[in-house]
Design goal:
The complex is a heterodimer of chains A (283) and B (283). Chain A has one domain: Rossmann fold (3-Layer(aba) Sandwich). With 283 residues, chain A is an alpha/beta fold. Chain B is of the alpha/beta class. In chain B, a hairpin with a 2-residue loop joins strand 9 and strand 10. Chain B has a single domain, classed as Rossmann fold (3-Layer(aba) Sandwich). The termini of chain B are far apart. The chains are: A alpha/beta (283), B alpha/beta (283). At the A-B interface, helix 7, helix 11 and helix 12 of A face helix 7, helix 10 and helix 11 of B.
């Protein structure tokens, strides 16, 4: 199963006038189990694109199929929305209930499940994001720290048991440890529930370390869609698109410039240290 | 004795003496016995986890918040004395996180002129100040452009130009890069660095350790207290201090330390990808 994006084109309208397309003829497939990182400068179409994955925005041309369900067809959109969970930027601003438990339970309750099923799903979601039941269930979401609030908001989406989890800059505004805890959560979700992760992020270090595939959007079109190693091997092209590259890639590019040849495609700490130790063993 | 004291007073632009502050209904103080002095022309970064008190500290510099106990003195003026607030705010310009909340008019140069106009400054003088301010943030070409067509980074630079038009002595940035993409962040940091080079005192609150590598000193906050203060080299060599404060060093520093653990001889003052690449090429 997979999400198939087929010749997707979309333009916003303003005062009845069609603006320049925000998405231009996107065609690619997101495989189940992948961790897709989406990068692109501001205005490249990243957020507009992900809103097509559960039919929040409707394409004017082309199709989005989630496990075969066409999101532009009303009857199938419902199914697609069950499959695709959406975490927007600063999702904690949408917390509203009196307790963390009630907030996380809101989605499952809307599905008209039995109270015992609601409880199971809520507890499961809170456990997944690392909010201990005893400590957090009856607390107000507004008493939590920034990182805890963010995790509570994500738990509300996870309680719907999505197969595909879409996150729009989930680490924005968090401190370094908060950012690490969100990334660790995404990794454990993939490992334990086989959830597919689709994440927009500006942090190239995080994308290089965690993503299995990277999509580069430029002016609404696919500029690159490949493994992180192959995408970041094209560092100079990325910089021309106004993007940065992982720290390790910056080190490699600079060393190459200074005349030390380094194989392309090294973009994580681990890969760099592996290369370095092997190189020294040879010397 | 008395003369020595006066000389000290002169060289410190900002002085926090045993400052404590507690938000209403909070369990613990947001600032707990803060003592800190900032010299004229210094570039100071304040880092710490979410809720560590770093923004609260920044808001004391221009009297947005007043100490519950202790004293904050800015340019020799005590923030607790009401008549001092206006002169202090003319000396302390403050930029915040969200670029969209800081601009008030629709055209760039009108926005930059807004502050000086409110102070009743003569039109000729305003023209000069606006031109100078736009030039210092590299936005002269945008003077007549509509504000809403600018990128986040450009909006933040216009917000800073608006501050500069008031000719302040001190610029305080409260997570001003948090909502920007990497390009916007780089633009803003370059602008701030060039302002510092021309003598501006800069206080920068940030969540991104990479942004602090060019500062004179870093203040590390944890639970309302200052737990570390020193040059970037000093702070980022204290792994325990960072980890206890829920922070992680810049990626280049982490890679440096991993290489050192594997027996690679690298100097401790490496903080950036470029410095790391140069050192590796020499070794």
């Amino acid at each position: 199963m997979s999400i198939v994006i087929d010749h997707l084109t979309f333009a916003y309208t303003e005062g009845g006038k069609r603006l320049e397309p925000t998405l231009r003829d996107l065609t690619f497939t997101i495989e189940e189990g992948a961790f897709l990182g989406i990068i692109g400068h501001t205005g490249s179409g990243k957020s507009t694109f992900v809103q097509h994955l559960n039919g929040l925005l409707a394409s004017e041309k082309g199709m989005v199929l989630v496990d075969g369900h066409d999101v532009s067809v009303k009857a199938e959109r419902r199914k697609a929305r069950e499959l695709v969970g959406m975490v927007f930027q600063y999702p904690e601003y949408q917390l509203f209930a009196e307790t963390v438990f009630e907030d996380v339970a809101f989605g499952p309750r809307n599905l008209k499940l039995d109270e015992s099923d609601v409880k199971t799903r809520t507890e499961e979601a809170m456990k997944l994001v690392g909010l201990e039941l005893e400590r957090f269930s009856s607390r107000s979401p507004f008493e939590l720290s920034g990182g805890e609030r963010r995790r509570a908001a994500i738990a509300g989406v996870l309680a719907m048991r999505p197969k595909y989890l879409v996150l729009d800059e989930p680490m924005a505004g968090l401190d370094p440890k908060g950012r690490e805890s969100i990334l660790a959560l995404l990794e454990s979700l993939r490992r334990d529930t086989n959830c597919t992760i689709i994440m927009i992020s500006h942090s190239m270090d995080d994308i290089a370390r965690h993503a299995t595939n990277v999509l580069v959007l430029d002016h609404g079109a696919v500029s690159m869609y490949d493994t992180p190693e192959r995408v970041f091997a094209r560092g100079e092209e990325l910089q021309r698109l106004g993007l940065s590259v992982p720290t390790v890639t910056q080190v490699c590019m600079e060393m190459n410039r200074l005349g030390v040849p380094i194989p392309t495609g090294i973009c994580t700490r681990d890969a760099f240290i592996r290369w370095f130790t092997e190189e020294r063993a040879h010397a | 004795m008395y003369t020595v004291y006066l000389e000290q007073e002169d060289s410190f632009l900002i002085r926090f003496e045993h400052v404590t502050y507690q938000y209403e209904n909070a369990e613990a103080p947001a600032l707990d016995d803060i003592c800190l002095t900032v010299e004229k022309g210094e570039f100071l970064a304040i880092v710490g986890h979410n809720g560590s008190g770093k923004s609260t500290l920044a808001k004391h510099i221009n009297g947005l918040l007043l100490p519950a106990s202790g004293t904050v003195t800015v340019c020799g003026l005590d923030t607790k004395i009401e008549e001092n607030i206006l002169p202090i705010r003319q000396q302390v310009g403050m930029a915040f996180q969200n670029p969209d909340n800081q601009l008030v008019t629709t055209v760039v140069e009108e926005d930059v002129a807004f502050g000086p106009e409110n102070l009743g400054i003569a039109p000729d003088e305003i023209r000069t100040r606006v031109d100078e301010a736009l030039a210092s943030v590299g936005m002269t070409a945008f003077a007549e452009k509509a504000v809403h067509h600018l990128s986040g980074g450009q909006k933040q630079r216009i917000a800073i130009a608006g501050i500069l038009a008031l000719r302040p002595e001190i610029l305080v940035l409260d997570e001003a890069t948090a909502m920007l993409d990497p390009m916007g962040r780089t633009e803003l940091l370059e602008t701030v660095r060039s302002l510092h080079d021309t003598g501006m005192t800069v206080i920068m609150v940030t969540q991104y350790m990479e942004e602090t590598t060019g500062c004179d000193r870093i203040v590390v906050m944890n639970r309302g207290r200052i737990v570390g203060i020193g040059t970037p080299q000093e702070i980022f060599s204290k792994a325990d201090l960072l980890s206890d404060s829920n922070l992680v060093p810049p990626e280049a520093v982490s890679i440096r330390d991993l290489l050192k653990q594997r027996g690679c001889d690298l100097p401790d003052d490496i903080l950036t990808a470029k410095q790391l690449a140069e050192a590796l090429c020499r070794s």
